Amino acid sequence: MYKGFLFMVTPFVPLQHQVAGHNGSMQSVDGSLFCKAAKHREIKFYNDSHGKMMDPSDSLALGSLLIDWMPVYLGTLDPGLSDELSSKKSDIVDGNQNTLGKVGQNETFLVLENVLYGYRKPNIMDIKLGNILYDETADKAKVERMKEVSRSTTSGSLSFRICGVQISDDFHGELPASIENCKMEDVCHRKPDGYLTFDKRFGRSLTETSVRDALRLFFRGNCLAKVIQDKIVDNFVIRLQTLYNCLLDTEVRIISGSLLFVLEDDEQRWKDMEYEDPVLEERLIDDSDDEEEEEEEGGGGSIISSSLSCLKFIDFAHARYTPGEGYDEGLIKGVENLLKLMADI
Could you tell me the keywords of this UniProt record (predicted)? Predict the structure, then answer.
């Protein structure tokens, strides 16, 4: 766990932006923290990933470790087990039915950076990697159901599937043009906060050919200047290439893990940041001395993104390191196919 950032008992509210995954995820009131209920296996994977970064960052190329692609891991929260938290229950459970405490008093919560913190108009796309969508613990009914999902979608043919999309509503009251086999009025929903969301039926209706149009919609379906759009696409291609090399060197099995694509759709913020968008954010190092200094100064250590777009690997409920077994072919194939499609959008 990164010890250089401390979080105190703080109110949590429902997550503002979510395009896929289970409901119930939360964020801190200031938006800097992301919190979700997690099982032991996912927490262990975060701990194991952090443990693989033993040396200072200057000895390891940025992007070469899986943790470089994961949201910053801050620790866990156990509301049902902590006397301190119980005594401050009113700070966590503020009467809202959707607060952290109401989700489950006996659950352990994973606390991560909120990768959207600092974005003004985040456009988000969740892409599930791999063609195998079940693990060894799944019952027979789920295995058959997930096999059918893979067979009938791009999960099987391309080893990736778009699971959810959120983009700013820049279409002047209209919906985006329909894509082959996909009527927008069936899968696209206008939200009161100025976004369009695309549900899981959108991704499941896409084919090997039409998925390119969906990617183009995400990267080009906005009012950003073309030079900014081109920069975003170029940066994501570099990120995917770097992640591909990382996955080739990582002996792991990840089932139903997702790539989260985020881009800033506020052109003024691009101007404010002088169009500087790092391909990768600097690696954060565990430094106990810094932690002690922050405690003395009373600093909380918020993580504010300086990026204008980012790529994150998320969802590790069915993930484990597999020493001696080589890379995960499903992940590799999915990233390969994404790279091929990204070359023509």
Answer: Kinase, Transferase
pLDDT score for 56: 52
- Tell whether the torsion through CA atoms of 54, 253, 64 and 26 is positive or negative: negative
Would you state the torsion angle of the CA atoms of residues 169, 170, 172, 175, taken in this order, to the nearest 10 degrees?
-60
Let me know if residue 295 belongs to a domain. no
Instruction: Give 143-153 pLDDT, tens digit per residue.
Output: 999 999 999 99
Residue 128, SS3 per DSSP: strand
Check whether residue 200 and residue 275 sit in a common domain. yes
Are both 90 and 155 inside the same structural domain?
A: no
Q: How far is Cα 316 from Cα 42, in angstroms, rounded to an integer? A: 5
Single-letter residue type at 64? S
Burial of 191 (0-12, 13-18, 19+ CB in 10 A): exposed
Is the domain of 173 the same as that of 278?
yes
Q: Say how many domains are in the chain.
A: 2
Whether the pLDDT of residue 303 is over 80: the answer is no
* Cα Rg, the chain, nearest whole Å: 20
Q: Is residue 131 part of a domain?
A: yes
**Residue predicted with more confidence, 195 or 107:** 195
Spatial contact of 253 and 325, defined as CB atoms under 8 Å apart: yes
Q: How confident is the model at residue 33 (pLDDT cuts 50, 70, 90)?
A: confident
**Ramachandran bin of 196, using left for φ above 0, alpha for ψ from -120 to 50, beta for the remaining angles:** beta
Domain that holds residue 42: 12-113
